[in-house]
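hiii, so i know i said id send this last week but things got crazy w the move. better late than never?? heres the sequnce for the chain we talked about at the cafe, plus the structure i predicted for it. fair warning i was half asleep when i ran it
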Amino acid sequence: MIEVKDISKSFGDKKVLENISATFKPGITSLIIGGSGSGKTTLLKCMVGLHTANTGQVLYSGSDFTQMDFKERIPIRKEIGMLFQGSALFDSMNVEQNVMFPMNMFTNMTLKEKRERVDFCLKRVNLDPGDVNGKMPSELSGGMKKRVGIARAIALKPKYLFCDEPNSGLDPLTALVIDKLIDEITDEYQMTTVVVTHDMNSVMEIGENIIFLYQGKKWWEGTKEDIRKTDNKELNEFVFATAFAQSLKE
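okay and structure toks below
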């Protein structure tokens, strides 16, 4: 479980997050949504330590991540998987090397053990290791890159999974496949999964817990069922505008 308590973050005079509190539970896909500039990506970066919050706490299974130094954070970082926007695969590495990368950094596994784990993770995201292991990222479709990114994210059997706009650049059908895959592995491995997204299809498909940020504040929280009947003005405007924009793209 991850607990965020009264997180605030400013860049100079600009306040981006203001007293954000939330709880993210294992086995549940939690989504953070909001318009551009609402603070959703900043919140995610504060949670994983890429940004330092001005005030507040981030607790991983009760341990205060915000008070730890670099060395103290390493055991928790080993338990975190990240799926970046655009997949962020290393262009100079083939698929096998990309998925193996976190194992090289954080484990003493033998090469045989690493290769077996790579193959397992690729199969879990419905990719054939024999077909893709030797391919470079430039040879993969957008959907395949995302799957490889997920395989790399789960390589160390993480307790926590963070996804930043996982459907960015994907067509609706491929995006649905990625959504379902994230939801499935979250339940299968009982991970605490946090997804930052503006994709309303994702929200209505896998939104077990949804947090809506507005102007740096937590404005609403609920489920995909709750979102259909909410009378929150700003949330309804966001949902309508986002759904309309997606319909134009499709």
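btw The mean pLDDT is 91. thought thatd interest u
miss u guys!!
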